[in-house]
Every structure is written in structure tokens, then in C-alpha cells.
Amino acid sequence: MKRNRVDAVLDRLEQMGLEQLVITDATSIFYLTGIWVDAGERLVALYLSRHRDCCFFVNNMFNLPPDPGVKIVRFSDTDPYLEMLAGCTDSTRPLGVDKNMPARFLLPLMSMGCGAEYVNASICVDGARAVKDEEEMEAMRRVSAINDKAMAEFKALLKEGVTEREISNQMKEIYQKLGADDLSFPPSVCFGANAAIGHYRSGNVALKKGDCALLDVGCKKDSYCADMTRTFFCGEIAKEEHRRVYELVLEANRAAEAIIKPGVRLCDIDAAARKVIEDAGYGDRFTHRLGHFIGLEVHDFGDVSGANQETAVPGNIFSIEPGIYLEGDVGVRIEDLVLVTETGCEILNSYGKDLEII
After folding, report:
1. What residue range is the signal peptide (predicted)?
2. 224 inside domain
3. Do 203 and 95 share a domain, yes or no?
4. I need a labelling partner for 338 at 20 to 30 A (CA). Which of 40, 192, 266, 293 fits?
């Protein structure tokens, strides 16, 4: 068990007026224990309590380290494992439950009366995960450095006639050559008008002179995720509006990053970028929030949006990714990951952002 992380969750549990919590999300369990169990349809559950023994419920088929640092409760496929879990909880007290707990587990536990009431308490883990410790900060620096190196290699692949899919198919091998473990999400390689399509992946479109080439890519290293977007142009700038759009997105990216420090509201960071784009008349073409939190998952809980009035705190890591999307024409997005420090922020990506014509 990672005691400091467990204590942070228990402190948040106390602030909610709760004493106990059942976690079934594999990523959150890994965060707290250092143990990864890909359980599939089987139950894997971590029971945390402020006043009782913490217990880790694991099927016999999964291997565990010799000294996991938490009480292990083993069971087989035919054991009454939900009754075993219910026997561990305090039925007289409210029970915090995981927002991702499958109904096939939660409903029987509720029918057994394993808690006086049931509260979605995932924010206790989500909030702790949003504030990275030193070990996590270093992991995020390492994986982002790999992403920077990879972006340079991806750019070198961009030639007239190459297709989006031909580029994306080479990315995993390049990442692994540079030391990454895997992709953190399927790469988004978008040429020309495809760059204006939200969540577009990669097709058979070939790159041609004057096209933009938007690369939204990320890798994993030691379980932590990187994410970065850069937009290039092939051969020339086809329209002066494309140059203008690029420069606006870059200005918006830098405007947001310039104000990041502890105590600044996340909605105000979003507003700093959005104002640049709105003042230029493209407000309706910036169609998404400014950023998302990231760590063990490429989209951790939390975002940088106009709706989030929470303030930045040291240890937060999130993306800054303004964009302008002209349907049927061009799309530009520039994305960095930033770490909130005690006095400001550290930009985790060093790959250049000035306009590049390749």
C-alpha cells in the first residue's frame, strides 16, 4: 500500500462525513496499492476504512506481490465473494462506493444491507489523484520527454502523398524504440479538412501541398500517460487565414499558460485562452474545453473549462489545448501538458510551437 496516498483518501473521506469506501476501479486500486489487476468481469475490490482494517479482495487466479502491505482476502469463482465483502463493512454506517462499480456488484451489496446508505465517494480518490506527488511528477516528466522526441520523428514522416493511416501505424513502434511502454490513446492523425473534425482518428487521406497536418498523440511509460498536439503545414500556407488561425491558437495557448499558478481558478485559465479566440471572431470555432487532467489515465477526473470554478493547486497536471476548427477547410490545435508548481507552472512539453512548414 502507498500509505501517503491512502491517508489522503481517508482524509477526504472524513471531510465527506464518511468512514468507509469500496473501490473497484482498477486504476484507482493501482494508484493506492501499486498492484495492477486486470480483473475483467471478476470482482476486484479495495475496502478502505477509517476505523477498521483495510482489505483487498482478489480472485485466486491473480498473482500478488509477496508483501502487498494490506490484508488480502482471497476467493475463488464459486465462493460467495460479495457476502465476504459485505461481511467486512459496517452496515450501521453509510458506505462510500465507486462511481464505476458495476451494477452486478453494487445491487447485491445493497440488498445485503452492507451500508446504512450508499454515497458516490469516488471524488475522494479522484481528488487525491489530481494532486501528483514527487514520484508521479517525475513519471510525467519522463513520459512527456519521450513524447517530445517522438513528435520530432513523426514530423519527419510527413511527406506529400503519405496517408494518415501510414503515419499512425508507425507510431507505436517509434514510441517503443524511444522507451515508451505503449500508446496512451489511439493516435489522431488528421490532414487538411479532417483536422476540423472532433475526435477524428486516421483514415486513408493522403497529405497534399497546402494541407495542415494535426497530430494529437501520446504514449505511456511506467503506467503514466503523455498527451500532446502539434499542427504543421505541408509545403506552403494555402490561405493567409490559415496562418492567422495558427497564430491565434498559439497566442491563446501562451495566454493561458502565462496565468497558471496556485489559486487561479480553472475557469479563468479557460477564459484567458478563449478571449484571444473570441476577440478575433472565432469564438464559435473553439468547440471544446481548454483542457483535461491527466496522469494514470489520459483523461483523469477534472478539467479546465468555463464550468470549473475550482482553483489550481501545486501538483495538478492538465492539458492546455486551444483550437480553431473551420469545417471543410482547416483545423489547428496546440496542446501542452502543464504542472502547477508552488509559484507558477512547468510546461512538460519542450517541442517547439512556432508555425512549421514542412
Report:
1. none
2. yes
3. no
4. 192
> Which domain covers residue 5, as residue numbers?
1-128
- Residue 353 in any domain: the answer is no
Whether residue 252 contacts residue 322, with contact meaning beta carbons closer than 8 Å, is answered with yes
What gap in Å lies between CA 234 and CA 229, rounded to an integer? 16
Cα angle for residues 50, 41, 110 (degrees, 5° grid): 45
Taking the complete model, does pTM exceed 0.70, yes or no?
yes
Residue 12 sits in a domain of what CATH number? 3.40.350.10
So what's the pLDDT on residue 296?
98
How much is the average pLDDT of 123-150? 98
State the SS3 of 216-232.
EECEEECCEECCEEEEE
CA–CA separation, 228 and 337 (whole Å): 7
Does one domain contain both 168 and 278?
A: yes
Q: What are phi and psi of 94, to 5 degrees?
A: -60, 145
C-alpha cell at 11: 482524509
Residues 79 and 225 in one domain: no
Tell me how far apart the 2 most distant CA atoms of the chain are, in Å: 70
Whether residues 240 and 142 share a domain: the answer is: yes
**C-alpha grid cell for residue 106?**
453494487
Domain count, the chain: 2
Contact 301, 129 (CB under 8 A): yes
Q: Which residue in the block uniquely carries the three cell numbers 497546402?
A: 210
Residue 174 within any structural domain of the chain: yes
Neighbours of 178 (CB within 10 A): 17
Domain-located, residue 354: no
22's grid cell: 469500496
Report residue 89's pLDDT band, with 50, 70 and 90 as the boundaries.
Answer: very high
Same domain, 50 and 114: yes
- Compute the distance between CA of residue 159 and CA of residue 207 in angstroms, rounded to an integer: 7
Number of H helices, E strands in the chain: 9, 19
Within 10 A of 100 (CB to CB), how many other CB atoms are there?
13
